[in-house]
Design a protein that fits this description.
Structural class: alpha+beta
Order of helices and strands: EHEEEEEEEEEEEHHEEEEEEEHH
Number of domains: 2
Number of helices: 5
Helix content: 10-25%
Number of strands: 19
CATH superfamily of the largest domain: Naphthalene 1,2-dioxygenase Alpha Subunit, Chain A, domain 1
Strand content: 35-45%
Shape: globular
CATH architecture of the largest domain: Alpha-Beta Complex
Distance between the termini: 28 Å
Largest sheet: 8 strands, antiparallel
Length: 342
């Protein structure tokens, strides 16, 4: 039992249905074979020589060997090779070869549907093994005018519904993070598994307690289920466009991993010469700004983690007028628990 938690209180199912982050393509290609705990499952991830990625259960259907690299699993010619008897599996999960006999047709790995967005790899977790019930969005437009993705992650005791609730809980932006002039723009819109939330805010940067600069921000949040949030951000004072992904994935029913991914559009002529780093070459300026933004976002998340890791889920919170769209968000979330009685 975790200190401070009352197990008699209602709890959310730890694995809501949806698309959840696996890893970046570059991480998978560099490691050759990745094993991790994801949605309460032991999985392995690899890609073949054509770049196709497979996410599969890390257990050989032949005689039950673990397939992870720690046990001796490896990728050869694009196929996953079991360390126990050398059975080989392609990225569809099918056994295609053994060292000593024809491959049995029934030997097949349990594989998960995958999607890739700008090098970010996701897999579908369906309640009771259901196939995908909805799709992630198409990748946003990108090109040489966007810098490389920056990654940051943290693990803690929590739940993706609680973390994603921040997309509509604008009151906490003032109280926890010290934002000012926080205003919702219109109402939250919901279309099936898609939720859109828009808001403006200002954020003051201080050094040694002295006000240095105030960011004037407009944010549009696109939520697809509880594992994928994509925020388009425009900062008016500098004239800067950024993107932020907030990806929360359950690990084992207790811990979650929250991954932040950000990148910034090339800042050609920042309005503010000092804060906008006009004195630097544009590509270097943009890369540095991306790191500054990630540092600020990660500080915000760590402030939230202190609360998320200790809070109790209230199925019927006592809301006030300033709580905005939390009620609508809770109703939206019900679809991701198809096995839960109404």
């Amino acid at each position: 039992m975790t200190a401070g938690r009352d197990e008699r209180l209602p709890v959310l199912s730890p694995f809501p249905e949806g698309w959840y982050f696996i890893a970046g393509r570059k991480t998978i290609e560099k490691a050759k074979l990745v094993k991790k705990t994801w949605m309460g499952e032991q999985i392995v991830v690899w890609c073949d020589e054509e770049g196709r990625i497979c996410v599969a259960e890390a257990v050989c259907p032949h005689m039950g060997s673990d397939l992870g690299p720690e046990t001796g699993g490896r990728v050869r010619n694009g196929c996953l090779v079991c360390p126990f008897h050398g059975f080989e599996y392609n990225v569809t999960g099918q056994c295609v070869a053994t060292p000593y006999a024809p491959a049995p047709r029934t030997a097949r790995l349990k594989v998960f549907h995958t999607r890739e967005i700008l090098g970010l790899v996701f897999a579908w977790w369906g309640s009771g093994g259901r196939p995908p019930q909805w799709e992630l969005p198409e990748a946003p437009e990108t090109g040489s005018d966007w810098c490389e993705l920056e990654f940051w992650s943290v693990r803690f005791q929590g739940h993706p519904q609680e973390t994603t609730e921040n997309s509509v809980d604008i009151a906490h932006l003032r109280y926890v993070h010290g934002y000012s002039s926080v205003n919702a723009i219109g109402s939250v819109s919901i279309d099936g598994a898609y939720l859109k939330s828009c808001f403006d805010f200002k954020r003051t940067q201080t050094i040694a307690g002295i006000k240095v600069f105030t960011y004037d921000v407009s944010a549009v949040t696109h939520v697809y289920g509880l594992g994928y949030s994509f925020v388009e951000v425009y900062e008016r004072a500098i004239d800067m466009h950024t993107r932020l992904w907030v990806l929360t994935t359950p690990i084992d029913g207790r811990l979650v991993e929250l991954v932040l991914v950000s990148h910034v559009r090339r800042i050609l002529r920042p309005k503010r010469p000092i804060v906008g780093m006009r004195f630097l070459p544009s590509r270097l300026r943009t890369r540095l700004m991306n790191k500054i933004i990630m540092a600020a976002q990660s500080r915000d998340v760590l402030q939230d983690v202190v609360i998320w890791g200790r809070k109790h889920y209230r199925p019927r919170p006592l809301l006030c007028r300033s709580d905005g769209e939390i009620g609508a968000y809770r109703r939206y979330c019900r679809q991701f628990y198809p096995d839960r009685p109404d």
